[in-house]
Amino acid sequence: MAKTVCIRNADWVVAWDEAGQRHAYLQGGDVAFTDNAIAFVGKRYQGAADETVDGRGLLVMPGLIDVHAHPGHEASYRGIREEHGVPELFMTGLFERSCAYSLDDEGKLACVEAACCELLLSGVTTLVDISAIYPGWVDLIAKSGIRGVLAPSYASSRWVVRRPHLLEYEWNEAAGRRGFEEALKLCDQLAKHPSGRLSGLVSPAQIDTCTEDLLRDSVAAARERGLPFTVHCAQAVGEFNEMVRRHGITPVQWAHQLGLTGPGTIFGHGIFVDEHSWLRWWSRKDIAIMAETGTSIAHSPTPFARYGQTLQDFGKYRRAGVNIGMGTDTVPQNMLEEMRWATVLARISAEDIRSTEMAEVFHAATVGGARGLMRDDLGRLRPGAKADLVLVDLKNPWMMPVRDPLRSLIFHAADRAVKDVYVDGRQVVQNGRVLALDRAGALERLAEGQRRMEKDVPKHDPMGRRSEQITPLSLSVLP
Ligand SMILES: [Zn+2]
C-alpha cells in the first residue's frame, strides 16, 4: 500500500520553479510525498494523506547533495589536519599525510558512522563516498538511511614524500587493474541493492596516480554503464607541476585529451586550472574546456582554505558555464558550513561581493550536484522527484528573525537548526537525532582508531617521524 505524508502549511518551502529552472520561495505551502516520490508542492494539497506533519514554524527544503567526501577516514584527522601543511609542496599536507596516516578497517567503520551522522544532521541526503573498499562499508551506508553513491577508489601508484620538497610515485600497475575490476564488480552489485538507495560511481583515485590506460578504461566503463565518473584533477600545485613535467600540458587539458571530460564527469576539485594565480601558467583554456564539455567540479573549499588556497573563483566558473557541485571532503562534514565558506571565499578571491550569491551556492549544493551525478530526480522539490527533504526549525534562535530563511540557515544557524530529514520518503533524522546510527558510540570507537593510527605513524612515514612531529598540538603541554 502506498503511503502518503503531507507537510501542511510550512511557513517557507524552497520549491522548484520549473519555468525558471531554479529554486524559489513558497510561503505557506504544502509538500506531499507518496512512498519515495514527491507528489505535490504548492499552496494546498487536496489529496488524502496517511500522515500529516504540521509545517508551521518550519522551512522545507530539498536535501543536499554531497558530490565529494571521504567519510571513511577524514573524521579520524580531527585535531590532526586542520593546521597541517607542507610549504615545500606548495602548502598542501595531502601527500605527506596520505603516506604517514593509515586508519585500520575497524577505525574506518567507526569513522564512516560518525561522518554519516554529521552529514545527515547538516542536511545531506545524497552522499558520494570515495574510498578504497573495506569490509562492512556497503552495509553501514545502507543502514544509515542516506542515499549512497559509493565510489570505490583505486590507483596505479601511490605518493611518497621522502623529502619535503619532492613528490614521488611508487607504481604498481597490476594493483591498479585489480582495484578497477573489484570496483566495477561492486558498482554492478550496488545497482541491484535491495534498498534502491545505493549506486556506484567509477572513481580512479587521482589524475597523477593512474596510468593513461587505466583512466581511459575507467571512463569507458562508466559511460557504458551510464554511471557517473570522478577523479581528483587540478587539486594541488604539486600535481599540476608533475603533469606538466610528464605531458607538457595542464591536468585538465591532459584529462580532456584522454576523453575524460564530459557530462557525468566530476573533477575533484578543479582549482588549479591554468589561469590560477599560484601557477603562472601561460594558457587560458581549462575553464572553457570544462564548460564546453559539460564537466562538473566538486567544490570543497574548507581543506584548501586551510592551506591558504581558493578556487578563483566560484562566480567566474559559473559565468563561464562550468557546472559546480558541492562536497565536504574533510571534517567537519558539514555542507551548510561549506556553503558559507564557498560564498565568502568566492568574494575574497574576486575581491568583489557581486562575484557570488549564496543562492548560487545553494543551487550548486542541490541541482549542480544532481547534474554532476546525472540525476534530475534529485536536489529539487517538484512532483516526481525523490522525496529527499530537510525540515529546518525556524524557531531556533540562530534562525531568528526569519526574514530570509536560507540566509539565516547558511550564514548563521547551519546544522543547529536542522530538525528532521527524510531520504527516499523515510525519516532518517528526527528532532536533530540520527535514527539508525549510534553517533556517541561511533565517536568513542573512532577515538580508539585514531590512537591506533597515530601509534603506527613512524612505521608508515618515509621519514620515520612520530605524529606529534608531523603535526604538533596547537599549545604546548605543561609538565
Ligand atoms: Zn578527495
Instruction: Name the beta content range.
Output: 15-25%
Sequence stretches where pLDDT stays below 50 over 5 or more residues: none
Instruction: Give me the number of helical elements.
Output: 16
Percent helix: 25-40%
How is the biggest beta sheet arranged?
9 strands, mixed
- Hetero ligands: zinc ion
- Shape, per Cα inertia axes: globular
Extended strand count? 20
Average pLDDT confidence is: 97
Termini separation (Å)?
Answer: 66 Å
* Rg over C-alpha atoms, rounded to the nearest angstrom: 22 Å
Structural class: alpha/beta
Which key features would you list for this structure?
single chain, about 475 residues, alpha/beta, 9-stranded mixed beta sheet, 5-stranded parallel beta sheet, 16 helices, about 35% helix, globular, binds zinc ion
Describe this structure in words.
It contains 16 helices and 20 strands. It has helices at residues 94-100, 105-121, 137-144, 173-190, 212-225, 237-247, 251-257, 286-293, 301-307, 314-320, 335-350, 358-372, 405-413, 439-455, 457-460, 467-470, and strands at 4-17, 22-34, 37-42, 51-54, 58-62, 64-69, 124-131, 147-154, 157-163, 166-171, 198-200, 203-204, 229-233, 265-269, 296-299, 323-326, 389-393, 418-423, 426-430, 433-434. The strands form four sheets. Strands 1, 2, 3, 4, 5, 17, 18, 19 and 20 form a nine-stranded mixed beta sheet that branches. Strands 6, 7, 8, 11 and 12 form a five-stranded parallel beta sheet that branches. A hairpin with a 2-residue loop joins strand 18 (418-423) and strand 19 (426-430). Helix 2 (105-121) runs parallel beside helix 3 (137-144), helix 2 (105-121) packs across helix 14 (439-455) and helix 11 (335-350) packs across helix 12. Bound molecules: zinc ion. Residues 68, 70, 130, 232, 268, 329 line the site of zinc ion (ZN). Zinc ion binds next to loops.
